[in-house]
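Extended Data, panel c. Modelled sequence:
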Amino acid sequence: MNLASRRLSVLILISYALLAAPFRANGQSCQISSEMDDATRKPIAAAGQRFFDLAAKGDVASMRQGAIPSLAGAFGNAETLVKAHQSDFAGAQASVKSVFLLDAAGNAPLPRAQFYCGVFGKNGQTPGSAEFDFENLPPGKYAVALLDVTSPKARTNFSVILQQAGADWKLGDLYIETAAIGGHDSDWFAARAREYKAKGQTHNAWLFMVEARTLVSPIPIMSTLATDKLYDEAKAILPGDFPAEGKTADLAAGTLTYKLTSVFPQTIGSDLDLVVRYQSADVSNTNKTYETNVAVMKALVTKYPELRDTFAGMVARAVDPNGRDYGTLLAMKDIK
């Protein structure tokens, strides 16, 4: 299945008579854990636990066997993801946090499938609600299982999208997301963002608020009351000279001006680094592109010196019109 991450506002025009019932739109419905009986809920939770146990053992072959055909035929990304988190799973304890049952009715793939789960209020999400957004979703019954994973090394969100096949639940997609960086969770990053805002460091404030939302969201295609609040808070402090929401930003470096397409935090090893992506006509000459990457990094920290004390390093990625890119990583102390 082709899954897309996109935050969508909840329609406030839902009638009050429907607020206490699962919301249906175009044949799409969702049930949360408390709305399911044991016979429905337990197999979903068991499937989520089973796929985690396989991932923890590194048994990607069995995971592939248990996947829907479209995922099994292109399992490379899932395999890479599992292997990247093997050390995080060592000695880990996993518990199923919540499950959702999604029903996509119809006879053809849904270009845009939205599922509203739980109870929504007049202002949108409530503490027990969630929204899932898919693109090109084939008709069928699906489930989502969210697991909290804690090990001596890391806290991780392990989440699976499942598709029903007969009496079995097959793996449709897999998400493994860090829940804490250096022992710091979403609340910590949000608190630091507000501190940066109070000091007038709006760029650090926005970047940390973005990281706070990333850490609290187990699946990019899922939004909750927590993610919506952080999204709104981040949007309110978005600097006008930073690229975001499809808009580029110009960065002068000497006599040249580069178009930045995105700037965002990223964990590399145990460090929180900053990634900047920009447009490039050609990345085939790697020596030249390396020099350009370094120039972009120098220009960025010169324009925004607050970044030096916040991030351990920076990655500049030049991206050509065909989507090919070339990246350079430097420790912040080496950007001079």
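The longest helix spans residues 38-57. This feature is highlighted in the accompanying rendering.
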